[in-house]
């Protein structure tokens, strides 16, 4: 703890100038720069992908504005405050999840939304859990000896499994797995013995054939399509054939902004939402996609660095887990569009059109920045 | 502080966490590396494949159907044209509530349950997403307008327009010009797939079938940029189609109308030729069908009734109906007898109304025979045998000739053969001889067979087109011409390749021909001579006739009449009654038209078929005479 104070009193940290001023308002300059770059690039591509639709573009700006506000607010709150309120968030979120299962609004065949009274926008509790679950696991671990003992591990897994199970029941397998991953990331970062990790891996591999039978038909179809998109070129395989065609035809430098035929002639489905990376690949080429991936890498590296530098266990675990969760989003989305993973409904972080996920992500970055910029515990 | 905290080793936790974070970052780098490898695979190594695929997505080469060549009659009247029809189509993917939409459309245009059924069938077939599916064909202009007005509230509804075949004279020319039908998968395997890539109709019968290649034209192409829904965004390049050739046929629609009217609603056929060229002036087969039905979509019910009708409207009697020629065959037998030297013009026999082969009991009757044997034509020479149509004279004549000689002579008139230049699907009829009987029936030729052939019965079969050719050959005094449809075309047609002209009929002298024509003139014009002395057709058609016409009636038995019984029309069913024939040409000394008339189960040739022939000849000749 004293070590941190010492570092922060070094001249370069007390220097004046923009970075220092940003830090005074609890924002991390490197992270902020990378986020701004991704959002900027994303907006340009979205404008093209949405066929210069100004309404859509305006909506996205408004949402990103709200998300940025969420980030700034989240960054102002002390990590200690987060820890104190974590159980409340978690239990509240869990209650809402159960409410969704009971009375939620059905959209596209699954119950994910909670209609709020008084004209407030609809709310998706599973989004809250993406942050609340890793925080709860970190809260549980913060005053226990690490690496976790077996009994603590069991409690942690229960904390993860209950909300993840609820989300999977909605049914939303993709989000459920991602929420579970956020929690598991905390467990892994806490120093869980590799022997146990290996055993869990073996157990999961053995359970895999059984899990196959638990999947819905359309989910199995998506996985099968991954291996042979041409088995159903006009149906389930269409998305993957068209997205790989879009990316591949872009080449190294791309066809140029607004010039993508795959997206502008409607061959590419969901071109401004989940499949927007294919538009980047087609119009801006390998260069464009690598730029986006590099910016993501900067964010991940910075997040992990901030986590390692944090003074308190809770801070470390939360910052690290949120960073890794962010990466998983990005990876799953790009891998899916490239035809390496089955099609799941995961947007490209900070780029895809859509509000809820952007707000959650930016709030996570706010929490990470809070860890970075608040002196002491 | 609880004692448990004391166990926590903050420095160790920090180290462990740092190691884990480093491991995690390593995994992150590996995963990103994997993505980068995949991207390089797609965008660098396999870039060209995907670029091609993207171009194929975007750019489509669409074939453009050529307009089908038009068919005119000899007077420049359109027999087959093209007209645009509009089809109501639905893009299923853009419709939320399909049954609701169909209900709404039914309020604007008439949609039958059958339309909906077919629409559902078409929807089941495999197709591209966003491909329009036809719901109702052949919209009227009013319906198109009503749909256009309501279009804004009917998303997914589109109207497609295309050129299709149209037959302005409906059923009248169905058996002469033929018709088109939809191109089938089989056709596409058989035909040049590229040439027919945009073509939806192909010649089915008649002129449409024979000149398919020339009428079709050459397919064109356009290179277009389309979106994923198949909608054209822009045309990049166009290579227009070349319209099919327009052709003019010998047919005379006014004569065709007259012939169809003369037949009325009786089953039968009329074929009229220009004996000088062989041009087919009229070809009627009744009942007929409306060929337009096969273009705009025929309902199952309509098709079933066409196919299953006992009157067989789809059957072209003019070229495929094969019947015994009856007495219309007698002029050929007479000419054969003259050529073979078994009879002269002066030779007479006595016709008592019946004929018996030496040493046999069977009686062969004349048409004037009565059960008390009081009939008969008395003393008969060849001339009288023609105008009185004496059976006994020709029974006798046929027995005097070897059947192979008689068959060989008759073959020179085209019987038993397909002579037409450009009429597809004709039937050859049957001209029996010894070889045929041995191979078909495994029996020797009996003298009784010859007796029957003498009056055009027995196994002999001819089509109306063949008998019209016989009439034209006699009109030409032995010069035989092949029947043909094509009169003119802008450019030479690849299909028109007439075989060399046939040699004239060998045997009869010019005098024989003239006297045979005289005898046939007497059939029509010899009148007011008293009972049993007039030409057989004079009473029915020979009076007040302003031109000279030569003709011969025929009455072909359908069922055999038992020995000793009389033919009684009342006792026989409609389809067992005799077929009525008449062949004729006019003017007798310089013929410009020759024809054959058949009335199925009509009865006597002179009474039933001859008046039809007279009406057709009048329709053709009276305007010409008036003009002179």
Structure in words:
The complex is a heterodimer of chains A (377) and B (628). With 377 residues, chain A is an all-alpha fold. Chain A has helices at 2-8, 11-14, 18-24, 29-49, 54-76, 79-103, 125-141, 150-169, 173-189, 194-214, 217-227, 238-250, 261-264, 276-309, 313-337, 356-373; strands at 105-107, 110-113. A two-stranded antiparallel ribbon of chain A has the order 1-2. The termini of chain A are close together. Mean pLDDT of chain A is 87; it is low at 1-7. Chain B folds into 2 domains: 62-249, Penicillin-binding protein 2a (Domain 2); 253-627, DD-peptidase/beta-lactamase superfamily (Beta-lactamase). With 628 residues, chain B is an alpha+beta fold. Mean pLDDT of chain B is 90; it is low at 1-6. In chain B, strands 2, 3, 4, 5, 10 and 17 form a 6-stranded mixed sheet that branches. The termini of chain B are far apart.
Going across the biggest sheet of chain A, name each strand in turn.
1-2
Structural class of chain A: mainly alpha
Distance between the termini of chain B: 136 Å
Shape verdict of chain A: globular
Radius of gyration of chain A, CA atoms, in whole angstroms = 21 Å
Q: Helix/strand/pairing class of chain B, anyone?
A: alpha+beta
The CATH class label of the largest domain in chain B is Alpha Beta
| Number of helical elements of chain B | 24
Strand content of chain A: under 5%
Biggest sheet architecture of chain B: 6 strands, mixed
Mean pLDDT of chain A: 87
